[in-house]
Amino acid sequence: MLEPTDLTARAISELRTRFGTEAAVTGRAPGRVNLIGEHTDYNAGLVLPVALPHATYAAAAPRTDGVIRITSAQEPEPFTGHVDELGPEIEGWAAYVAGVLWTLREAGLVSGGLDMHLESSVPLGAGLSSSASVECATAVAALGAAGRTLDADLQRAIVDAGIRAETEVADAPTGGMDQSVAVFAEAGGALLIDFDSGEHHSVPLALGERTILVTDTRVKHQLTDGGYASRRAQCEKAAADLGLSSLREADLEQVETLGDEVVRRRARHIVTETARVEPTVTALGEGDWASISELFAASHASMRDDFEISVVELDLAVSTAVEAGADGARMTGGGFGGSIVSILPSEAVETVTAAIDRAFAEAGHNPPGHLIATPSAGASYTAC
Ligand code: ADP
Ligand code: MG
């Protein structure tokens, strides 16, 4: 089980060791697991993510000479630059980190240099949004170091800066769910986000004796590979062919009139998946696990068959979890690898994780990783 260790102290001591600098501020921003509503964010739809207790931690100290130095325990190469020379051409992992400093500077929110060190307990590339987690941890720490107060306007600005870093610098055309939950999540709840109205609110989860389990198949997805971008383009084509501004406005009857068979299936996933989100909110609020079972099964089938973003490891983890006693299980995140999410009686966690481990070993897959997704709070910073 991958534990959600608090890495604040380690970030502070590594900043000292690597740069000889005392931290002025520490920031934390969580990874996330999406309970339902996959690929619906860029279709003006609904999503329902939960912030993980696993997070990225940043320790930072401001500099007066404009120099920016950033290291990460998760990446061997440090980033060095100057605040006035940041731009969209930043490469590698620094695209997410220095990229967000650039977009914050563009927004007029930071102007100085800094030393920063990052530690993370979010597995990278597992579909649990280590990317938004590292963007938002960087942003809160940099804004804290710049003396800014984390109010609602600043939270909104962090989300926007993270989205711009991810889409314009890292070239991953993701939709905004990850940064929103990394910033706005409330402990104990899930965040219902409506990408049509832009509104979001925390919804209660009547988990009781139930646990949200995440299983990382360890199949590395790569959002910059093109699968994600092609799904996005197919959704845009479907909306355009129907004369709609987004698939949020489409119904199933309209979707079935689409001439291109592939585009039709992509659109069908978006329409049916969006329709599953509100019933899931209701079921989670009432502890209605029979409904969760059906909704998760339908969601997974739709991603596997209509949207075609699943892989054999995800399908195996989902079917094994359900056979071993989970109420419901589905792949989560962008797809093409990454993780599944299951909801199960807390007493069944060991049985279910052992069953998945065994199934993976028998099929010759790499051992999966498991973590418990206790619903956690969004990004914050603390002055040292
Ligand atoms: P996911 O967000 O699902 O984990 P992505 O491919 O979107 O996967 O983002 C993973 C990338 O984000 C990593 O390859 C790395 O470039 C960057 N990243 C995430 N966390 C960190 C970190 N703690 N330190 C440095 N880079 C990170
Ligand atoms: Mg990501």
Automatic annotation (TrEMBL):
Keywords: ATP-binding, Carbohydrate metabolism, Galactose metabolism, Kinase, Nucleotide-binding, Transferase. PROSITE patterns: GALACTOKINASE, GHMP_KINASES_ATP. Residues 16-62 form the Galactokinase N-terminal domain. Belongs to the GHMP kinase family. GalK subfamily. The keyword Membrane does not apply. Residues 96-185 form the GHMP kinase N-terminal domain. Residues 282-360 form the GHMP kinase C-terminal domain. NCBIfam families: gal_kin (TIGR00131). InterPro entries: Galactokinase, Galactokinase_CS, GalKase_N, GHMP_kinase_C_dom, GHMP_kinase_C_sf, GHMP_kinase_N_dom, GHMP_knse_ATP-bd_CS, Mevalonate/galactokinase. Its EC number is 2.7.1.6. Pfam families: GalKase_gal_bdg, GHMP_kinases_C, GHMP_kinases_N. This is Galactokinase.
